[in-house]
Specification:
By secondary structure, the chain is α+β, with helices and mostly antiparallel strands. It has eight helices and eleven strands. A five-stranded mixed sheet has the order 7-8-3-2-9, with no helix packed on it. One of its GO terms (molecular function) is very-long-chain (3R)-3-hydroxyacyl-CoA dehydratase activity.
Length: 344
């Protein structure tokens, strides 16, 4: 295989030399600095096609022996550090520039360019400080953050209690725990869902950036399931669907609330972030399906008891069952889920 010299482009900063070797899909690279001379050897596709390429450069002034390089599909990037930080008038010891060497105009900066760049950055920093100093600080910022932190902490503890309680009972009682979930966890779920009304209020007060409408739909939907379907119909309280609704809700919230809680104090735990957004994908539709099953099971009960039925004139049938509202609710749930996943 013929040994050739590739095209090499260079640029510098006060303390570094940058070399770009025009060699694509490079392999078998051997790059080193010996006696202040850079030695390069490698195989790849260059100006003369697929061949082995080699070159050497004796630097103008001393450099450190450590060489950093990175190979991409298009080129090989090399960085060499100078022994002393100052600008060189040329790259090589010899005054005549090698034929294969040319300036890298994509990275080329003169000493005056760098000084101007640093000056502009310093001016931008000073201007940003001035702007920040003119922006009035919120005197209640600490109170707001404290309130949001405590709210998310309380909700996390509440849903954690429900999750642990249901998990322990499931291991001890097995499927029998499905049928008394409401009586063992309803009080805590009532508390958490009444607290959740604050999630509708917080966007209105500007405390969080969450959109008002999604928060309203989620809180309203859950509270209809909890307070109207489970809370008002004794027949529903002993059904297995209560277990699945409560368990799926708590599985989502034990990751969502600590994620928000850490966000209030400007902290991120990457594992928690991944769990919060990854588990949401299967758990949210499963929770919605469980809610829909609960609604369907309650339709006949509302028809029989006429609970919450709307009185109508006798000519129109006497009353309008609340089950029709729930049927409309099922359609809205379906539309909302489809819309949510399209946006996602």
């Amino acid at each position: 295989m013929q040994l050739l010299t590739p095209h090499v482009y260079w640029a510098q900063r006060r303390g570094e030399i940058f070399l770009r070797v025009d060699l694509s899909d490079a392999k078998n690279l051997n790059i080193s600095v010996e006696e202040n001379t850079l030695q390069f050897r490698g195989q790849g596709h260059g100006a003369k096609g697929e061949n082995e390429y080699k070159f050497s450069l004796e630097f103008r002034e001393p450099v450190r022996p450590e060489v950093e390089h990175r190979s991409t599909q298009r080129q090989v990037d090399i960085r060499v550090r100078k022994q002393s930080e100052h600008w060189w008038d040329r790259l090589t010891q010899q005054e005549k520039k090698p034929l294969f060497l040319a300036p890298d105009f994509d990275r080329w900066l003169t000493e005056s360019d760098v000084e101007m760049e640093l000056k502009n950055k310093e001016e931008e920093r000073i201007n940003s400080i001035r702007v920040e100093s003119r922006v009035p600080k919120d005197p209640f910022l600490g109170v707001k953050r404290g309130y949001l932190f405590m709210y998310n902490l309380v909700q996390f503890l509440g849903f954690s209690w429900i999750f642990v309680n249901m998990t322990v009972r499931l291991f001890i009682l097995g499927q029998d725990s499905f049928y008394d979930t409401f009586h063992s966890t309803a009080d805590m779920m009532y508390f958490c869902q009444m607290m959740a009304v604050l999630e509708v209020v917080n966007p209105l007060l500007g405390l969080v950036r969450t959109a008002f409408l999604p928060a309203l739909l989620q809180v309203t939907g859950r509270n209809v399931i909890l307070f109207v379907i489970f809370g008002c119909l004794d027949e529903m309280q002993n059904k297995a669907v209560v277990f699945f609704v409560f368990y799926l809700w708590s599985c989502v919230e034990i990751f969502r609330y600590p994620f928000y809680m850490l966000g209030v104090v400007g902290t991120e735990w990457k594992l928690l972030t991944w769990l919060r957004y990854s588990l949401w994908i299967p758990l949210y539709p499963l929770g919605t399906i469980a809610e829909a099953v609960a609604v369907v099971q309650s339709l006949s009960l509302f028809d029989e008891t006429l609970m919450f039925a709307l009185p109508l004139p006798s000519l129109l049938g006497g009353s309008l069952s609340f089950s029709y509202s729930l049927r409309l609710y099922l359609i809205l749930i379906l539309i909302y889920i489809i819309h949510l996943y399209i946006l996602w």
